Input
Amino acid sequence: MLDSGRMVGFVITTDYDKAREFYESKLGLQFVSVDQFALVMKSGGNMIRISKAANFTPLQGTVLGWEVKGIEAMARG
Output
């Protein structure tokens, strides 16, 4: 059932503008929409829904990741 559907990622932010700038400009994701529920970005055909919260403490670990070729070169920018 779920193996035939696309996965959707969910992350939290306190600021839609800063989140959009990061995901769009730094990571190169495609902006889809923003509404009262989430800022939505697209990555390789998959959706990432960025929800807004009044308070948020970042986790001390990875919450999203991508398999890419030449990660060292990409990390150097």
Q: What stands out?
A: The chain has two helices and four strands. The mean pLDDT is 90. The longest strand covers residues 46-52.
